[in-house]
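quick one before i forget lol
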Amino acid sequence: TCTMPLRPLRWVVLHSAISCGTLAAPDCHNPLFRVHWSNTDCSGTCPSSLNEEPIFFANLTVCQHWNGIASCCNPGLEAVQKKAHQRWKQRLGRFIVSLRTYIAQMLMRQLTPKYDYAEPDMRVLFDEAVDSMQTAARKFPPCMLEIGR
């Protein structure tokens, strides 16, 4: 059997390939990526597709961790991945803007007579809600930056 020490993922993959003999090639027909399976019946309207069988590449920029390892990813597929990544960045960016706008509106409500006349326990609950929303808004950007790497 193969025993490997705990290391970061890229070193685990490399270590597996070296110490355990041959590296099991990924299945290029993973159901999670069905939209990107090769399709010989498709013309120019299909999205870029995964390799039919794992192939070695050394020039991958999005899938850099697969450089030098037989994989399903290929340079043609990377343009689609970059486009999807940009779309998600825009979508998540709009979400954080909406969240911050909502928080600003909540903070403005604290300046109204309605807030002043509310029962103390209701003001406490409202303030706790504002605090939790502000915490989420502070933690969201660093998380998204980390995911985007």
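fyi DSSP finds four helices and no strands in the chain.
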